[in-house]
Design a protein that fits this description.
By secondary structure, the chain is an all-beta fold. It contains no helices and 11 strands. The strands form 2 sheets. Strands 2, 4, 5, 6, 9, 10 and 11 form a 7-stranded mixed sheet that branches. A 4-stranded antiparallel sheet has the order 1-3-8-7, with no helix packed on it. 32% of the residues are buried.
Length: 127
């Protein structure tokens, strides 16, 4: 079945940037919605960005708008997340998820809309 794998996490200082990648094991003809979620300590998992791989349409959560971009990567079946001006509150596990394209065209961030999830990659931001 479909598998997702995140990479690129690590430890960085506040104010720096970090690039994460999500790679799928299989191509889904017709496109999907690929979303990034994150979960910090003591917090609920929150959606931060999503992209419709068919149209390229992107939605960014208000909490990270201006400091985060999402794009289709140069490699096949890859979606990248680029974080800038990192803050300690950005620390946590970052997860890639895939679902129907419709999920990318709503203003909500509902976990059950996504069928496949990666294992996560950890981001640590120090002051």
């Amino acid at each position: 079945g479909q598998q997702l794998r995140e990479s690129g996490g690590g430890s960085v200082q506040a104010g720096k940037s970090l690039s994460l990648a999500c790679e799928a094991s299989a191509y889904v003809y017709g496109g999907v919605c690929v979303a990034w979620f994150r979960q910090g300590p003591g917090k609920e998992r929150e959606g931060v960005a999503k992209i419709d791989t068919m149209t390229g349409s992107v939605r960014i959560a208000d909490s990270v708008k201006g400091r985060l971009t999402i794009s289709q990567g140069n490699a096949e079946r890859t979606v990248d997340l680029y974080l800038t001006d990192l803050k300690p509150e950005d620390s946590g596990m970052y997860y890639c998820a895939a679902g129907d394209r419709a999920a990318c065209h709503s203003g909500s961030w509902t976990r059950h809309e996504y069928y496949h999830w990666g294992q996560g990659t950890r981001v640590r931001v120090s002051i």
